[in-house]
Write a structure and sequence with these properties.
The protein is 40% helix and 15% strand. It is of the alpha/beta class. It catalyses: dimethylallyl phosphate + FMNH2 = prenylated FMNH2 + phosphate.
């Protein structure tokens, strides 16, 4: 029997930086993985306003954007609380929310599961599966920090959108790739998105 390709849940919220999530999806699909995608309503708005994307027909747009990769993209509307990824019996390797708004982070920290994004994150926690959040906010106040600390103590990996400069980035794409590479590193996924220290 041929083993199924590994699957990851990717969430995109209304925080600034939807381009991070898109590059992550491209990277996972290019490696042949299956991606279960959830985008909040605010996330779709950011895609339109920051990236100039026409997302009126969302599934058609996603097919056009990501249809040419060897991996498989499965889109789940954020209101579909009965989707496969809402159940702990549905197995995936883990979940990444990139970027993660402070509202979504707060909901996860409080155990709120009122949409598919936060429910899928709650499933990762209860099943002991990897959950990575990429918060994108500045400055941070005490509530933000307390919520991040609470989740970190539960094993959630926090990878703030803070790109490095030691590798000599030449473009915005280099900075985006660095952050996506750090997320892939957290899952031990091999990549060549940035030059490592000492290379």
């Amino acid at each position: 029997m041929t083993p199924n390709p590994k699957s990851y849940v990717v969430g995109i919220t209304g925080a600034s930086g939807a381009v991070y999530g898109f590059r992550l999806i491209e990277s996972l699909l290019s490696l042949g993985y299956t991606v279960h995608l959830v985008v909040s309503n605010a996330g779709w708005r950011v895609c339109k306003e920051e990236m100039g994307l026409n997302v009126t027909s969302r599934e058609e747009f996603l097919q056009e954007r990501f249809g040419g990769y060897p991996g498989k993209l499965l889109y789940h509307p954020v209101a579909d609380i009965g989707a496969s990824i809402a159940s702990g019996s549905f197995r995936v390797e883990g979940m990444i929310i990139m970027p993660c708004s402070m509202g979504t982070l707060s909901a996860i920290a409080s155990g709120s599961s009122d949409n598919l994004m936060t429910r899928a994150a709650d499933v990762m926690l209860k099943e002991g599966r990897p959950l990575v959040l990429v918060p994108r906010e500045t400055p941070l106040h005490a509530i933000h920090l307390e919520n991040m600390l609470k989740l970190s103590r539960l094993g959630v990996r926090m990878i703030p959108a803070m790109p490095a400069f030691y590798f000599g980035p030449q473009s915005m794409e280099d900075l985006i790739d660095f952050m996506v590479g750090k997320v892939l590193d957290s899952f031990n996924i091999e990549h060549t998105l940035f030059r490592r220290w000492g290379e």
